[in-house]
Amino acid sequence: MSFLSATNMTGGYGAGPDILHDLELSVDKGEIAVIVGPNGAGKSTGMKAVFGMLNLREGAVKLDGTDITGLSPQERVHKGMGFVPQVRNIFPTMSVRENLEMGAFIRDDDFEPTIEQVYELFPAVYEKRNQNAGELSGGQRQQVAVGRALMTQPKLLMLDEPTAGVSPIVMDELFDRIIEVAKTGISILMVEQNARQALEIADKGYVLVQGRNAYTDTGEALLADPEVRRTFLGG
Ligand SMILES: Nc1ncnc2c1ncn2[C@@H]1O[C@H](COP(=O)(O)OP(=O)(O)OP(=O)(O)O)[C@@H](O)[C@H]1O
Ligand SMILES: [Mg+2]
């Protein structure tokens, strides 16, 4: 069984209609899994379901073999999940360093070494450590958001569009950092709008359409699939 195994996820928001239909998402240890698909396909909703922010009508989420379907998001953080949401993923009026400290909220041990690791991974975060996070560029904010999520030392890092609104060069740099994180054994589950580039670094890719799994394969195979290329990757 995969390190993260989310199966048959079906459900929606509150009493509203189902957004997810029988959705399956899984990630192995140290693997990068990428979710792509059109706007409104349910990519963010799928991530929220894995993180426990949605009441699933059906399905199960297992982490490292343990069923965590009934756990709250905070309990899932204790189990080793880190989540960077698509929007509002930093505290703009707090300093960069305070953002990282907030990320460590569940820890009662010395988290200073983890802050140093984040500074090493993202030198720009170190340079801006005393500035308000709201004053940073889009790419720098995303680095703070990823750094904040790393503060709990997650085993599974979930990123919803980490490269949204950043330049191609910053996107490449962020992907390189994400690869570095995965090489330390952390599993990555990532939603990406830059589908082609993201699938290039993906061990596994999911194409979602209308809350369902449309295509699942290695990143390489999806990039080579003429139907996937034509419909989702712009030819
Ligand atoms: N908080 C919410 N309450 C009710 N419906 C929602 C909520 N958030 C999203 N939805 C609905 O769920 C569906 C899927 O939205 P979702 O945000 O998961 O798509 P997405 O694939 O992440 O899109 P995008 O690429 O634009 O980020 C949409 O129809 C959307 O209107
Ligand atoms: Mg989304």
UniProtKB/TrEMBL annotation:
Highest taxon above the source species: Bacteria
Xref: CDD domains: ABC_TM1139_LivF_branched
Molecular function as annotated in GO: ATP binding; ATP hydrolysis activity; branched-chain amino acid transmembrane transporter activity
UniProt keyword annotations, A-Z: Amino-acid transport, ATP-binding, Nucleotide-binding, Transport
Domain ABC transporter as annotated: residue spans: 4-235
Stored Gene3D superfamilies: P-loop containing nucleotide triphosphate hydrolases
Pfam families named among the record's database cross-references: ABC_tran
GO process annotations (BP): L-amino acid transport
Family: Belongs to the ABC transporter superfamily.
PANTHER family membership: HIGH-AFFINITY BRANCHED-CHAIN AMINO ACID TRANSPORT ATP-BINDING PROTEIN LIVF
Name of the protein in question: LIV-I protein F
Native organism: Cognatishimia activa
